[in-house]
Every structure is written in C-alpha cells, then in structure tokens.
TrEMBL record:
The organism's taxonomic lineage, starting at the top: Bacteria, Bacillati, Actinomycetota, Actinomycetes, Pseudonocardiales
Organism of provenance: Pseudonocardia cypriaca
PANTHER family linked to this entry: CYTOKINE-LIKE NUCLEAR FACTOR N-PAC, OXIDOREDUCTASE GLYR1-RELATED
Domain NADPH-dependent reductive aminase-like C-terminal: 168-293
KW Oxidoreductase (keyword) present: yes
An annotated Gene Ontology molecular function: DNA binding
SUPFAM superfamilies cross-referenced by the UniProt entry: NAD(P)-binding Rossmann-fold domains
Biological process (GO), any one: transcription elongation-coupled chromatin remodeling
Protein name: 6-phosphogluconate dehydrogenase-like protein
One Pfam family it belongs to: RedAm-like_C
Cleaved signal peptide residues: none
Entry keywords, A to Z: Oxidoreductase
Residue ranges annotated for the 6-phosphogluconate dehydrogenase NADP-binding domain, each copy included: 12-163
Length: 295
C-alpha cells in the first residue's frame, strides 16, 4: 500500500472508514478527487486503496495531506480522540465533521477547531451509505459561509443536494434530530398500522400500497399546517379537532381490543383531548404544536 507524506498532495482526506466513511471516500474517488484515507483499524482502508485512495501512515499524515479533512467516526468524542493528538497540524485547513452528534457538541467542536486555526463545518448526512454521491442526497452544513464556498465543489461529490443552512455550526445537528424524529414517528406509525391490520392476517406487503399512497396524501397536508404554524392561527377549515377526536379514540380502542400496543395512539388522542378541553375544538390539527412547545 502507498502511504502519504505530510506535504498536502490530496484534495481531501477522509478520517474514519466505517460504513459511512468508506462510502464518503468512495464518492470522492468516483468524482475524481485525489483522496487520502485513514482509519484507526487499518484493514478497513484496503478496499479503498485498491480503488485509488492513498493510505496515510498516521492520523498526523492524514491531516497534513489535504486542505479539506472529512471526519466520520462513531461520535464527537471519537473525533476529539483522533484529532487532539494532531491538533497542531490543523491550522489553515477546513474540518468537515460528518459525525452525528448534538448541537451542543457541534458548537464545542467548532470552538475547539477555531482555537487551532482551522475552519469548522458541521455536516448532517440525511442518507445511508448506498445513497452517498447520488444527485438527490441531502447533506446539511453549518459553519462559515466562506469555508463552505471554497470546499463545496469537493463536498458536492457526496450528495447533489448539498446545502449550507447557517453560519451557526449547531443548526445541522438540530435539523438532523428533527428529521430523524419525523422519520421514526412516521415509521413507528407504519409499524403500528401493520400490527393492527396483521391481526386480520393482512401481510405488510398487501398493506404497503395503501400506506405509501396515504403518506403521499399526508404530505399534501403539510404545507397548510406549516402555513398555520407560522401564522400562529389554526382555523379548522378542512377538519376540526372535534371531528378527529372520535377516530383517534377508535384507534386506541381498536389497538387495545386486538392486543396491539396502544401507546402511540394514546399519545395522539391525549393531545387532541387536551386541546379540545382547552376550548380549541374548532381548530385544525396544527393547534397541537402549542402543546408540543409547552407540554
Ligand atoms: N451508517 C449510516 O447510515 C449513517 C447515516 C448518517 C450518519 N451516520 C453517522 O456516521 C458516523 C459513522 O457511522 P458508520 O455507520 O460509519 O459507523 P461504523 O461503521 O460503526 O464506523 C465507525 C467508525 O468510527 C471509528 N471509531 C470509533 N471509535 C473511534 C475512536 N475512539 N477513535 C477513532 N476511530 C473511532 C471506527 O474505527 P474502527 O474501524 O477502528 O473501529 C469506524 O471507522 C456516525 O456518527 C453515524 O451516526 C451514519
């Protein structure tokens, strides 16, 4: 295997070659970027070296090899573990941290990186490894706009929907959490629906077209909800909470009757009931934002 010397020969360095880091390195290579790679366990670098990556002999060499460092390890503590011993090499470079973490951790890492004279971009990858490099893959960045603009042509290799959200490095983590929350609550709803219809022997595959079609309709409700949430006014123009309360109660009852976990439907029913009790029976579903904001 070839190894780098610390003389800045690559366009980009990828540190962390797990499932995601390897996909990132592969996308850079596919886009024709000279790519240096390094992983704590060197064996994971082998396939990438076969594909044209240069293996750094150490984390220090990896940092020294490129103006742009992309780090994707397990968590922010691991980022610090890798970079602290080589922090002296960071000055003048840009660190794009694509490791998942909290908004607090992003701000702390941004401060630490700035203290070592480097630009910090925090990135949230809204995709699994097979989708890295695809034209519609969304990767959200926060940090100095100038540093993003300089490195965007290289970073764009990871996803066509690469987006700079804010100069505050905390913002992508917040979007990441919000979008994952949306995914999990939707998928839990899907699984709950499967458990319910499964009590009548309906298979998941049979139910699937009804679920996906319905989610398209649900998506079409979202612009109206967003408009009402932004306006802070929730007129029940199409459906009121009063009309949604009985079906929400039926869902709880149906779940209990069939021995299916009713936690999720109870949560929704309770939100609607509380809003109705507080005098909002004529409002739309968007009214529930008030309770989520101030539980
Ligand atoms: N996989 C996804 O679908 C996905 C999607 C979006 C975001 N992400 C985020 O991407 C990051 C990496 O995920 P992954 O799926 O690639 O995980 P993974 O396959 O488990 O890889 C973890 C990587 O972190 C390294 N690592 C862990 N602890 C370390 C330490 N203390 N010092 C140095 N290196 C350390 C591992 O090195 P070794 O090989 O030496 O163990 C490995 O390279 C995570 O933050 C994850 O949340 C993943």
């Amino acid at each position: 295997m070839s190894t780098t010397t610390p003389n800045g020969r690559s366009d980009v360095t990828v540190i962390g070659l797990g499932l995601m880091g390897s996909a990132l390195a592969r996308a850079f290579l596919r886009a024709g970027h000279r790519t240096t790679v390094w992983n704590r366990s060197p064996a994971k670098a082998r396939p990438l070296v076969t594909e044209g990556a240069v293996l750094a002999g150490s984390a220090r060499d990896a940092v020294a090899a490129s103006p742009l460092l992309v780090v994707c390890v397990r968590d922010p503590d691991a980022v610090r573990e890798v970079l602290e011993p080589v922090a002296g090499e960071l000055a003048g470079r840009a660190l794009a941290n694509l490791t998942s973490g909290s908004s607090e951790q992003a701000r702390a890492l941004a401060g630490w990186t700035a203290g070592h004279g480097a630009d910090y971009l925090d990135g949230a990858i809204m995709m699994t490894p097979p989708g890295i490099g695809a034209p519609d893959t969304l990767i959200l960045y926060g940090g100095p706009r100038g540093a993003f603009d300089v490195h965007e042509p290289v970073l764009r290799a990871l996803g066509g929907a690469t987006t700079h959200l804010a100069t505050d490095p905390a913002v992508p983590s917040l979007y990441d959490s919000a979008l994952l929350g949306l995914m999990w609550s939707s998928l839990t709803g899907f699984l709950h629906a499967l458990a319910l219809v499964g009590t009548e022997g309906v298979t998941a595959t049979e139910f699937l077209p009804f679920a996906t079609g319905w989610l398209r309709a649900v998506g079409s409700f979202m612009p109206g909800i967003a408009q009402q949430v932004d306006a802070g006014a929730y007129p029940g123009e199409e459906a009121t909470l009063e009309t949604q309360l009985p079906p929400a109660r039926h869902l709880v009852h149906e779940s209990e009757l069939r021995g299916v976990d009713a936690t999720l439907p109870r949560f929704t029913r309770d939100l609607i009931e509380r809003a109705v009790d507080r005098g909002h029976a004529g409002d739309s579903y968007a009214r529930l934002i008030e309770q989520l904001r101030a539980p």
